[in-house]
Amino acid sequence: NAGVMQNPRHLVRRRGQEARLRCSPMKGHSHVYWYRQLPEEGLKFMVYLQKENIIDESGMPKERFSAEFPKEGPSILRIQQVVRGDSAAYFCASSPPRGGRSYNEQFFGPGTRLTVL
Amino acid sequence: QQQVKQSPQSLIVQKGGISIINCAYENTAFDYFPWYQQFPGKGPALLIAIRPDVSEKKEGRFTISFNKSAKQFSLHIMDSQPGDSATYFCAASRGDNYGQNFVFGPGTRLSVLP
Questions:
Q1: Does pLDDT of A99 surpass 70?
Q2: Does residue A102 carry a pLDDT above 70?
Q3: What chain A residue is nearest to B31 in terms of C-alpha separation?
């Protein structure tokens, strides 16, 4: 039973380029969360998605950042025109459908480490 | 109201000792409190979690103590081992409103000396 998968694991971009981060949730999970972790800091919530719907994007910067979770395929976090301050580890987590014992649990992927030169 | 405070920032413990990490929250709507363990370069891994209907939960060497009136909870690692050296994050979420995001503490870097 594969866990949450993220790719790429490492991504280097120059200022002004676009970064695309992908996340495949655990099998059977339909809820995806994105978090950002700056060096030596905790994780900060960015966005919560279900298939084809953004449920909560209160943690997303208003500009340049977008996320989607299409009916087919992985969830994508897209950062346009990256700046050095975007350099961080981006983690995706998934959770099972409501009603099970573990519906609150979020399982994290290994993260994508974005470096902006 | 959304903040979760965590202390200490770093902790050094001798092998075999007890590691204690404390967290506090303000939002009384929180009712699910997990602890995550993170090794360098890895994603956080769920260690143990508690809901406020119990005051303590134990899984192996790991125990969560929960004080609802004080809005505090703590992680105790008994018989700490060098392999426990990692960063530990407490978190909180609203379990009644499924799917709410986690609010994480800033983390505690634990070092267990051999």
A1: no
A2: no
A3: A104
